[in-house]
Write a structure and sequence with these properties.
This protein is an alpha+beta fold. It starts with 10 loop residues before the first helix and ends in a 7-residue tail after the last helix.
Length: 561
Amino acid sequence: MKGKKTSKADPATIEIIGNLLLSIAEEMGAALIRSAYSSNIKERKDCSTAVFDAAGRMVAQAEHIPMHLGSMLTIIAEIYQRYPAKTIKEGDMFIANDPYHGGGTHLPDITVAAPVFVGKKLMAWVANIAHHSDVGGKVPGSTSGDAISIYQEGIRIPPVKFCQDGLIIREIRDLILLNCRTPQERTGDLQAQVAANKVGIKRLLDVYKKYGTDFDFYIEELLNYTEKRLKADIKKISNGVYYFKDYMDNDGINPQKVPIAVEITVQEEHISFDFSRSSKQVTGPINVTMNGLYATVFYSLKALIDPDIPSNSGIYRVFDLIVPEGLIVNSVAPAPVGERIDTCMRVVDVIIGAMAQAIPDRVIAACNGACTTGTFSGIDPRTNEFFVYLETIGGGLGASSQSDGMNGVQVHLTNTSNLPIEALEIEYPLMVERYMLRQDSGGAGEYRGGLGIRRDIKTLAEDITFSALADRQEIPPWGLKGGMAGKSGAYYHISSGQRSKLSSKTSNQRLKQGDIISIQTPGSGGYGHPQKREKEAVCRDMIEGKISRTSAEKDYGVKLD
């Protein structure tokens, strides 16, 4: 087949090449995780990898963090704007993180992209993205709940050459490290990103050697296949206009609720998403750039319509977005975007809420809908070095028409692992005092919503600071078809036996040795009326501690001896 002109696509070969490209992306991810330095990447796996064609269209993305797709979506196009293709050489790599001029969605997510050459021909790209625990900014961990400008959120990196002849350019590396609080971690993680791309280059060249010039042809057919398959699925949905609105608790600066609304129009094999009735961009850091919105809609379509469809640019051919500039979901500089993930979670919620009217048996009730984050920082007395520990804690998955929601998991656009207690306590002057599911946090229903998590962390050193980022702490996750809402989340500071509630967007809370931060994540909504739930299931939930006796009797109507 090598070098052969093909007039008709062979479906089997399309499937083989699609899976080969996916395996390359997955191997890159494994290499990045194994060789990373920080716990955020090596333990929590807060990273993603992808393969692109020469034009910069994504042809495969490993199933890591859906939100990261937004950071890689336009990275190759941004590189080409500054470096024409004819000037790019074998051994070059490029780095970027800027949401407004570098293809990113927030500054801690740093992308490293590398061209793949066959002889002198640029035939593809590989790229990976990793969430760095600190890239400067006004608070350790960079993302601040009270930021009012992107300039407060860390170093901004437009697409610049990071490697030449396969080696990191020292001046660029030093410039980045000088703006970070933990340069040793950043050095190790950046080197891991470069190494992961080298793995991807090698594997892509092996594929090209096997398929030769037919490789480009089959890439195009792979994108066409995704487009056709998704169009066929959309055509099964009833034509119509579907609307839903939900709210963010606040923007971190102003206390008012922030509306997120969508009007979805399904017409034959095309679908459009109109966000025009959403809030204008806000003062605080919950704004989203356009590429972040694209990634969110991409994920939502895949999850709702065809979870098995390949993750590539063919998906973008079947939908369009209506979203004027200056809205919270299409912000313009210098609006802060550090906490964009929670807004994107709400975008998923409103898409699901709207589509519940069209495909009720495919949707789930609202999930915990937040990326509940805690960041601890200070001097580790064991090493006398500054540390930044960042953690996002899972919550409840919404119930469906067929099953209860899962407990204590990351949902929608995040897919990270909770950091194991052993790893946390070895690396940082912190101790986990309590780690458990939150009783009664899942919304009651014929199918119960998943439970949130309570994680209490005690400081073992003086002068530790804590920053928090979350949502769904005032407006709970809703239920469907008579199902009840889940319980909201909360942060508490426990000091000298006194407990005080913190804001969902807290910056630089000072802690003394022995203080405890209790991170409590939201549950999720139930599905169907609670009175329809089987009595045995209610009893089992109470025995297992998932619901209280009070909830069993009040919400489910089950009287217990």
